[in-house]
Every structure is written in structure tokens, then in C-alpha cells.
Design goal:
44 residues, 0% strand, flat
Amino acid sequence: STASTARPAASSASVQGEVLVTVARTDAPLHEVMRTIEQALKER
């Protein structure tokens, strides 16, 4: 798997509504994951 290269794609994937799937494949800190999810929900 490419966890190291998947991190930059988190923001673009959030727009597609696949935040949970994306962040689940990364080793990002919990606060960063939650922030990404909250931002994605606001953009909907």
C-alpha cells in the first residue's frame, strides 16, 4: 500500500465524500483526521 503518498490526496478525496476511506488508509493523527472530516462536511 502507499500510505506515505496517500496523505496529500486526503483533501481531494474529501471533496468526493470518501474521507473515511482515505484517512483510514493513512497514519494521520486523530485530530488531523477529525479536522479533515469536519471540513468535508462543511463543503457539502
